[in-house]
Amino acid sequence: MISVFELFKIGIGPSSSHTVGPMVAAARFLTDLRELPEPPARVGVSLHGSLAFTGKGHGSDTAICLGLLGERPDRVDPDAVPGLVAGLEAEKAFFLGAARIAFDPASDLVLDTAEMLPRHTNGMRFTAEDAEGRTVLVRVYYSIGGGFVVDDAAETAPIDVVAPLPFDSADALLDLCEARGLSIAAIQLENELALRPRDEIEAGLDAIAAAMLACIERGLATGGVLPGRFKVRRRAKDLHARLQAGALKNAKSPSETMDRVSTYAIAVNEENAAGGRVVTAPTNGAAGIVPAVLRYLREICAEPSPEKTREFLLTAAAIGGLIKRNASISGAEVGCQGEVGSAASMAAAGLAAALGATPLQIENAAEIAMEHHLGMTCDPIGGLVQIPCIERNAFGAVKAIAASSLAMHGDGLHYVSLDEVIETMRQTGVDMQSKYKETSQGGLAVNVAEC
Which of 123, 201, 325, 416 is deepest in the core (most CB within 10 A)? Predict the structure, then answer.
């Protein structure tokens, strides 16, 4: 099974696969270094594939430095990051206990666009040498989307347990719901209970929801420009101010509700682009969709309650787990359909569940949302998670709400199944040219002038 806490992880921006994943990989390598009989004298790192092409814009180099300094995505203070990296660059070394290990990011961290490692386009090779230059340790890791990291030896990202109510397809999930008389959220909860006690699950879900909603608030309160050479102006604060001013004047537009949802999604992804604290949902590039729809649920649709919020997140996780297992949530692997499309599908399912939909209607909502993101490329301009990523989250959130509404106006019976759409997304990703998969070598990334 894939746990809700694997799909929703608190970390920092701007990318789960290019920032969170490399930080996790570097931290794992640091753990392996501690197990050597003697500390090495020097460490070198090379990034490959999509990580090499867009690593600078996605902060992959910074993430590697932070991981080697012992930082973790869920614990690092975003405000402390510049000072930590500057210290490493000045020292040209990090410490393992009392041992000084040479590592100069300027020369020992290489973005290798020539070599593609075999298992995934987001590959990383870590090498440790002794004082004589002999290699004492080599590790290869792959960041496969959503902060999941695997190595050459084994897939260590998903938690490997025997779920009491296993399902590997949407059809199997619906059969379980019917046979057991349980909701999708209840099925997911039963499987989560195989990993940790109920009170820990509930506290974890509440913490995830709180982090999502707090990220929206930070985004709504912060103006200025985003980091990077394009100096993209942050819009969420001004958009929110206009909406609030209109409400005070009783001058509401017909589109106000959707405008608010779009603003919430933009707020999160502006925080992500600025390297702030976000929740992978299921990735950083698509982190604004689930929080925006969750706030829509709590603000517009129903009285806020922990129970409804947990049902939303558990249902979304069940759908996200199916997509992750049977296709991909990695933009570098299948394009943005795997990120924004997956997030919209998860949010649509979670919203429908929290509003009382049947399992069939929930599956239909997830299917509609994913179907209408098929073929979406990942072509960030300048390798930055800004254009078109931020606006895509706004549209993904609105599509999720529309999908949920359409499904709930029906009886759950429909022609195209969620399983068929997930498989179509996988096949489309396989057929998609690599230049459209988070390399910034095609699409908007080359057709928009950088000036």
Answer: 123
Q: How close are the terminal C-alpha atoms of the chain, in Å?
A: 46
For residue 127, give the 3-state DSSP assignment. Answer: strand
What are the start-end ranges of the E strands in 50-121? Answer: 93-96, 99-102, 109-112
Say which DSSP state 359 is in.
Answer: H
Distance CA 451, CA 449 (A): 6
Q: Which residues pair with 149 in a beta bridge?
A: 143
Instruction: Decide: 408 and 351 in contact? Cβ < 8 Å.
Output: no
Both tokens of 126, joined, read 């870590």
Instruction: Tell me the three state secondary structure of residue 49.
Output: strand
Going by their DSSP bridges, the two strands 135-145 and 122-129 should be labelled as: antiparallel
Distance CA 192, CA 2 (A): 9
In the block, tokens 């660059």 appear at 89
pTM exceeding 0.85: yes
d(CA 440, CA 451): 16
- CB count within 10 Å of CB 352 equals 31
Residue 96: strand pairing partners: 99
**Nearest C-alpha neighbor of 224 from the set 240, 244, 238, 242:** 238
What are the angstrom distances between the C-alpha of 426 and each of 89, 338, 357, 412, 419?
A: 41, 8, 27, 24, 11
Residues whose CB is less than 8 angstroms from the CB of residue 104 and which lie 6 or more positions away in sequence, other chains included: 89, 92, 93
pLDDT per residue, tens digit, the chain (451 aa), is 899 999 999 999 999 999 999 999 999 999 999 999 999 999 999 999 999 998 888 899 999 999 999 999 999 999 999 999 999 999 999 999 999 999 999 999 999 999 999 889 999 999 999 999 999 999 999 999 888 999 887 544 444 567 999 999 999 999 999 999 999 999 999 999 999 999 999 999 999 999 999 999 999 999 999 999 999 999 999 999 999 998 888 777 889 999 999 999 999 999 999 999 999 999 999 999 999 999 999 998 878 899 999 999 999 999 999 999 999 999 999 999 999 999 999 999 999 999 999 999 999 999 999 999 999 999 999 989 999 999 999 999 999 999 999 999 999 999 999 999 999 999 999 999 999 999 999 999 999 976 5
Q: Backbone phi, then psi, for 444, in 5-degree steps?
A: -60, -30
Distance CA 87, CA 94 (A): 9
Burial of 112 (0-12, 13-18, 19+ CB in 10 A): middle
Contacts of 75 (CB under 8 A, 6+ apart): none
> Looking at the DSSP assignment, which residues form a beta bridge with residue 140?
125
